[in-house]
Here is the input.
Amino acid sequence: MVINTLGSPRPNSSFQFYTMWIRDNDFLPLVASMLPLNPHKGPYNRLKMFLRKTKTAIQQLNKNHFADLKNQQSNREREVRDKYTRIFSSVIDIIRQQCKVEWITYKDDCTRYFFAKAKQRKTASYIFEMQYELGRLNQGFPAVATIMQNYYKGLLGE
Here is the structure.
């Protein structure tokens, strides 16, 4: 037994209005430009013409601005994530700076920790090696002291 059925035509899809179109800056001027200017036709014909023209214009707007919503969403998420990261790192920097200020305001409690930190900051600013005379590297505090003395004696005179 063989059953043959006639193929039914696909029904036309109905036009659906999305509220996201209203938020677009081009939407209101687009709709305003579609208003019929011919007052000689009846109100039904003017409405029909307006709806037909507006439908095609909105479909074109949808193609131009809303066709790739997933890409737009991922791009926007990336932008927001980058902005959040910049703000968060700025907050962390401010907190670090405030911690340094708070640590200094505690003043000297004559603790080993305070003296160790002070010594560490002082030794970090020492110059242990210096490049001098055609790129030759001199190391050690006495060598650096001699180079600096000779340099300033040459500038100021002996």
Summary: Residues 31 and 116 are 74 Å apart (CA to CA).
